[in-house]
Amino acid sequence: MKAHFEAVSMLERDLLLSRRFVLPEFDHPFHYHPEYEITYIERGRGIRIVGDHVGAFREGELYLLGADLPHWYHNTEAPARGAAAEVLHFRREPLAGLLDHLPELRAWRTVLEQAAGGLCYTGTAARAGVRLLRLIRQAHGLDRWLHFWALAKRLTAAAPALPLASPAYAVPTPAPRADRMYQAQRYILERYREDVKHADAARHVGMDPAAFSRAFRRSTRKTFTEFLTDLRLGCARRLLLETDRSIADIAFDSGFQNLSNFNRRFRAAHGMAPRQFRRMV
User: Fold this and answer.
1) pTM here?
2) What CATH number has the domain bearing residue 175?
3) Which of 29, 48, 140, 196 has the lowest CB atom count within 10 Å?
4) Alpha-carbon span 220 to 201, nearest angstrom
5) Beta partners for 74?
6) Kind and range of the H or E element at 135?
7) Phi and psi for 153 in degrees, rounded to 5?
């Protein structure tokens, strides 16, 4: 399933585009666009695809998606009350000067970097977010920007959001670029289809394996093995979605050493076999 480019109907002078969609069901194709997108699911539930992530979406969730990140919301059955969503699009370029030079916006810039792979907010953060999305849509002039910055502040202060796409889609880019955990993630990204070892990554960044394990987990919230498996599963999901290649070819090309291990890992992560996943999507 290939992602289609979507030209969001923003005029060149527009910095924010806020709309409410009311539909019989979510039927937009798998697509991407250069604008950031914040979506609150008001009504409807089904399957979401964000980058190489596939999962369930439901009412009351708010999504922050980075620029050019492919995504799709699909109702598994036509909702009785129809589907509805509040959607805000905005561009980073007009904000670049503020984001790059104002220390007060450093935290929001970090959130936008994390959104490169998609973030999902629930609970209090999502409810506060949709109230501000509605205010943005109804306001004019400077008031729209006041509500936008209030939304940015709310999402920045919220409990950590659920990251969606695998690290293969978005590796953090900390400053300085010499950060050892950044270098470790780049090292793994470049070799995850090979037989990359924990000790190799530790040696690459000049760290003792035990110290590397602790630092890597603090940085990524995952063990080395979990991070590596997520990368390989993300690659496999993308190949299952976008190609007709055999399951065995996909398993080996994604870095798994044998088919049974791939099937076991995939089922543990998704609750179904790769072949069922391909049929469902």
Assistant:
1) 0.73
2) 1.10.10.60
3) 140
4) 14
5) 47
6) helix 123-138
7) -65, -40
